[in-house]
Amino acid sequence: MDKTTYVKFETPESLEKKILELVENCYRSGKIKKGTNEVIKSIERGESKLVVIAEDVNPPEVVYFIPKLCEERKVPFAYVKTRSELGSKVAIGSTASISITDVGKNEELLKQITSEVANLNK
After folding, report:
1. Residue 28 and residue 90: Cα distance in Å, rounded?
2. How far is CA 71 from CA 35, 50, 76, in A?
3. What is the pLDDT of residues 99-115, one digit of tens each?
4. How many domains would you assign to the chain?
5. I want to staple 114 with a disulfide (CB 3.0 to 4.6 A). Which of 75, 76, 86, 100 is the partner?
């Protein structure tokens, strides 16, 4: 199983920069859940505003079902290239996925990202 089994669309570099900026901002002023188990719980509880998944997760089974769960629960999701890049924005070495549950003062950036992601995910 490779990443193409769970990566549903290619994220442009400009969008990825915005996503990582939002993740870092929300880590500082909002609320974030880190790690697959916490992410799944936040989606199921209806707390997620945006889910971010790394493309280099190994084994891919760790995050395989997250995009499907997001689609079922109407939660926007996006991808970034690496776990280490995602982890560095939330003060840990690496993480397969994160869920933003409170955007703090970043509402406008979230709207931009979800709008761009919606266009990619058609």
Report:
1. 8
2. 19, 12, 8
3. 999 998 899 999 999 99
4. 1
5. 76
